[in-house]
Amino acid sequence: xxxxxxxxxxxxxxxxxxxxxxxxxxxxxxxxxxxxxxxxxxxxxxxxxxxxxxxxxxxxxxxxxxxxxxxxxxxxxxxxxxxxxxxxxxxxxxxxxxxxxxxxxxxxxxxxxxxxxxx
Length: 119
Known about the structure:
single chain, 119 residues, mainly alpha, Helix Hairpins
């Protein structure tokens, strides 16, 4: 069920996504909501993701009204708000993500191998 990272389209770097969101906001959204409003919006979107995960993959039973929910759409909703927050705060997500992956590669490359809980 997991996505094969080999087949993921990497032609749309995060900077391009940030520009696309900014252009949409500029042309259709009037302006960005303020950061606190967007933080509340992000919390709401993450809650929708959590609901799907808990009911579809967790132990809660899935309600009939939940069966039509699209996890990818809800993840994309959360990502859209994250990109808005990055744009508002001057955060280059590609730089931040690359930095985070370097930390993962350098510091955490063997960290989980010895975790007995994962075996």
